Task: structure prediction
Amino acid sequence: MLCNQCRFTNNLNKSSFCERETIDETKSENLASLEAEMASVEAMMENLSWRRTHLRRKINSLSPTALLPPEILTEIFRLACQLEDGGPPLTPLFFGGICKEWREIAWATPLLWNTLSLHVSRKAHGSQVQLLRDWLMRANASPLFIKLTSDDEHESIFCSLRAIMDVLVTRSIYWNSLDCLLPPQCHDILKNNHFPMLTSVSVRPPKGTISTFSEPPNMFLSAPKLLDVDLSGYNFSAMMLPWEQLRRFKTQFLTVAECLKVLKRSPNLKECHLESVYSPEIFPSPVSLDTFYSELEHLDITLIKGAAVSLLDSITLPSLNQLRVHYTGAAGFTLSSIHSLVLRSSCNLQRLCIEKQHLRDEDLIPCLESVPSLCYLRLIVVGESAGLSKNFVSVMHPSRDPGPPLLPKLTWFHYEGSVECDSHSLVDMLSERWRPQQAKNDNAVPIAILNTAEIVSRARYELPDEVECKMRSLTKAGMALSIRSLL
Result:
């Protein structure tokens, strides 16, 4: 028989247990209630999200762009992807992120995916390879314009390029152009593929291999439509190219003899860029008697030795209308070779660019007198010798006496170097060339309007207030005029 104290303790324990059960039941009920409320809130949020999406789509449907047919939107997308405003280029992925309708249009338009510009990354090349597969799939059978870039030239980058090229060559029959760094690791992939649509190639070896003149990839004979080739940095003697079908060619570090081989092998060549041309002779060789004719229209050459000038003495170019000569050699180089080339070729040269260390009147003026057809002239004097002189400005003046002014058809003029003439004479000449007074006699040579003139002085060049006022008047009248100093 329990005493009163034991009975009291037992009842107290039973009471505490019941209270704990009640508290636990209350907690469970509260938790269930809370979960039910959260589920209700989530359902409400989901419903609100659905309604917001529905409202946005309804608002978008009222937009003027929603009324445009898919063909117009496709053309807008295509033009937007081609814009070059200095920022990151737009891609079809951007339009796919706007709305469902735009995504469906973008994903179903192969022409939006035929331009592939990929910056190869060591860290992201795995995802890039997967994205590339999807990209090529959406491009379907459209001609592919491929450009691959990278920040550095490392073995891991070469491996990434190899992985990317493995995917690209699966669509080699659709390549239209290729512009990329091409390490030797990728050559064997290209060798065993055909490129029936390829028209333009610009590939270069890693910088470390340029000095050894690495061999170019053996892929060009499988490209029956190839017209434009840039192989700067490759060994010329190893180039296997369809020379007869080429229209544009660019390379570097060729001897004069190799340059002549390029022109002789390419009868249909229209544009040729030859950088760092040199000659192994210590002294300039005499004019070659083996001159030949070429249909070349645009010649751009950089000469690094005086003997390389013999290239200009060894060719006849009756179709030449654009010539750029950049001379970087230490020895002197007169413009008589340009003069003789123009006279010998009887060409209608319209654009001329000369870059060299010294430009003297007794050399420059006779050269320009041989090209009265010139409408575009760019002169860059690298050295600090006498440059734009008062004599040169006077022979350019429309009131030159006797005879017509120098370059009567000139419409565009750019000069960079030392400016020796005073600003009043210079601006007066430019003003008169902007609105030349034509002579009244029938035998006078008509003088073209000089629309654009840019003078850049390497030293400080003072412009008095009255000269600046006259320049502003010319600019307001429509002439594109600029006279400035680099210092």
About this structure: The chain is about 40% helix and 15% strand. The mean pLDDT is 83.
